[in-house]
Amino acid sequence: AVLRTQLTGGTGPDLMYVRSFKVGQDLFAEGYLEPLTDLAGLEENYSEGSLAAWGLDGVSFAVPFIAVSHGIYYNVDLFNKHNLEIPQTWEELLQVAETLQAAGVIPFSNGSKDEWDMNEIVFMNLLPDFVGGREARLEYERGEVPFNDDKMVAAFQALQDIAPYLPQGQEGVSYYDAQQLFLLGRAAMFFGGSWDVAFFVSSEPDFEWSVFATPAPAGRSTVVTFHPDAGLGLNSASPHKEAGLTFLSWLTTVEAAKILADELPGFYPLNETSITLQDKHANDFYALHEGKDVDARFVWPELQSGEPDGYLLTQTAALAVVKGSMTPQEAADYLQEGLETWFTPTQKFKK
To answer: Between 3.40.50.720, 3.40.190.10, 3.40.50.300, 3.10.129.10, what CATH number should domain 70-222+299-349 receive?
Structure first.
């Protein structure tokens, strides 16, 4: 809101952070951002998916700058104590959770007092493992499959699967509480994001910890939610466009990517060249997506521009499944029925 006020009043900055997808696209459509059609280094250094997060009608309007990754933090000492290996499939993850619970350890620290946690941190974390990565998401967005297909039902089933392994009274567990349950060694795992790396490092827990990618069910490939979060754009009214474009071109280089990653542990460049980070934990989290399919959080690209928006629908459904007031099938149907009221591509499936 502050940025928009500045831009409309003619006092906006020359360069600015630009949120991905709809927020940035709206600013560009309204003429506030300079098109970066021929910016040196842009096309060569970023994937189609990364460019799409800051593009509209084939025109880029910001350099992909910061991404955050999703995964599962785990207490290495507890895993060693109970002779547990990093799970390679969803089924193995549930077996690990069962073993920990039987030993009196809370398997997952997450709760739903902060409703966004169960949706954004847990459900968006595991969802692509069940429905697939970017290409699979595009099938939903193009209306090739409904939002209540068997894959979506399976994703909500996964939420139901982990519900017994959340803290007792999880409805009263906030995001901060979940962090503390993990940091105090009371819970063995925490569905989380790379943005927590610096906080966990500074908290200095008295155990060894690390991260692993949320595993897909047997027979499917693990997909990591590696979310394009912020780009850097140029004010279309800037009197310093040449200097701004020079800086943005430099921002596409590996040199810039390495500086970003080391100065902001847990916030990652989208440059396709692989790098090694100074901070071990940040580097371990960054490495989770290498060699794997990745995608943005499922509802961000196309499903937040109507009412009811996809975020609210998945959040309501995710909370209901965990609490036992919706079945996985009912949750998927709720998502489909909500989206088909306004999202044209999926209206063909309306009953």
So the answer is: 3.40.190.10
